[in-house]
Amino acid sequence: MAGEAFLGAAFGVLLDRLASEEFINFFRGRKHDESLLKKLKVTLLELNKGLNDAEERQITDQAVKAWLDELKDAVYQAEDLVDEIATEALRSKVEAEYPRGKQSLQDSVISTFTSFFDRGVNSKLEKMIGMLDHFVKAKDVLGLREVATRKWSQTRLPTTSLVDESCVYGRENDKEEIMKLLLSDGENMGRCSGIGINELGEFDYLRGTISISGLQNVKSGNDALEAKMSEKKYLEKLALKWDSITEDSQNARDVLEKLEPHTNLKHLEIKNYGGTRFPTWLGDQSFCNMVSLRLENCKNCFSLPPLGQLPSLKELTIARMSNITNVGHEFYGESGSLSKPFQSLETLRFEKMSGWVDWCILDAGEFSRLQKLEVEECPELVTSLPRTTFIRELLLKECRGVQLEWRSVSSVEKLEISSFASLKEFPSELATLTNLKELSVEKCPRLYVPEMSNCNMFLESLELVMCESLISLPLGLFPKLRDLVIGECTNFETLLIPEGIELQNMTFLKTLTIEGCKKLKALPEQMHTLLPSLQSLTLIDCPEIESFPEGGLPSKLDNLYIRNCKKLVVVPRGGALALHGSTLTYLYFQDLPNLKSLNKRGLQLLGSLKRIHISECPQLQSLPEEGLPTSLIAFSFDNCPLLKPRCRREEGEDWHKIAHIPFIVIDHELISD
């Protein structure tokens, strides 16, 4: 979803910039049509409403995916246009406020943007609005609706079209930063011919976010000192990066020592640092405003800085520090301090620490507010976890030596574990974890779940992936389960659903996904009554499934997604879909080499069906004689060579069966809209 995360961030940036006072004032000053800005903003807001829904559906809906891909290109163009306008506005203001001696490159930039405005910004805005309007119309046809906003972790800010993103991040607040870019050649800071790191010292009022790359090119600590980073009190986020691990570890340490920022700094990232020790300022209590810190790939360091006494630190990530073998007392800071270590820390991550063996836990009240702990790819670590009553999320991945004490994680709501070879079955303590709502178990090859296993009365989401010993799963063990995923469990054969008096316990399950289960031959019989609340059913790479249950599908089923089930010959037969699937709105069939026909009677009776997508079904010969439901708004297929000529516009034998559908895509080409 990284591309779609970009779209969400890009929309936010564009809207912020269009609403900025400087942007609007400059637009008025150049006597451009201000109403175009309002139209562009309204159009972006309308598109943004359907973005989250599209992100969820693009995995299973080819038409939605195509819409997102094309929208991404359009957003890039919109960014470019807004960037040029905003940069010209800032350049004009900066030219007056910060006159400089070097003019050649600046003159070139001025010439470029002046010619842009001479060509007419109004016409370009009108063209952009017209293009985005096309996506608004397609959004409505696809039925994309406004849903709750996903909480993306926006660790990467969108970049402008002006320079390489490794040089500078940040949009709205760093005016001087954009000025600096206009005077540079867009290369990294350490080797840039337009501006050297020492020239940063001239800009005392840098604010917002700055990233300095290419620090291996800084020749000495004295050069770094001239940047006067400690005087930039308005800077909030700073990234310091070496493009590679330098062989001169002493110089790297001198450079980082002299790049000490102002104590107002809130966010700091250090990457590829080649020194053997961190500078004395890192971890000092005077950095009382620092809320997040990331140390990555500092391979020469043998110990961590004393970070425990940073009073406001909420998020800490330590990654790819291969020479760290012990996280000891020095990590927590001065032992004589009155404050408890990491008193404000809420999120702690250790990632890809290949040499880490021991973690010293003080049991002295440290991590008292820790809510999220992630330990990932630390194969040599042998330790217990810190005890805290506030932790809500725990991720342990490829940490085979970590001792998971189930009773010590009683507050956990979300638990993800991976590569625990010793885990054979769920422990008895699982039943006592009353706060646990989400459980994900991956790469536990010995795990099996007997019918008389320990149950959890509160679990709502369960994901079992690559657990080769799992043969069956008794759903009665998890009566409140809403979402179930079984993936790549190659020996999994059956889903056991309770019957009779226990049936009432399974009324919560809404989504069921089964993927890569090579031995699964059938879904449970009478699942339309056993799983009455099921809304989404996904079957992927289950080659032994030949047909659906005779009783049909649950009455509340909304989405049916089937891919790479090679023995499946026909979709639910008879009136199975129509009888029990009256709420079905979406059908997706892909890579079904033996599928020859669709349901001849059931499809026509599905009055709620909105979208059908069919992909890679080479033997599918035709559409049902009765045609497709009049409720359809989107129909798409690709790589169905026998079906394609029959659906040729106005000429194909099956065209009359789909002509009423507003949105038709064949082999990724829009046929009707």
UniProtKB/TrEMBL annotation:
Residues 37-88 form a coiled coil. GO terms for molecular function: nucleotide binding. The keyword Cell membrane does not apply. Residues 7-97 form the Disease resistance N-terminal domain. Residues 197-321 form the R13L1/DRL21-like LRR repeat region domain. Keywords: Coiled coil, Nucleotide-binding, Plant defense, Repeat. It comes from the Eukaryota. GO terms for biological process: defense response. The keyword Nucleotide-binding applies. It holds the Pfam family LRR_RPS2. Residues 506-623 form the Disease resistance protein At4g27190-like leucine-rich repeats domain. This is Rx N-terminal domain-containing protein. It comes from Rhododendron simsii.
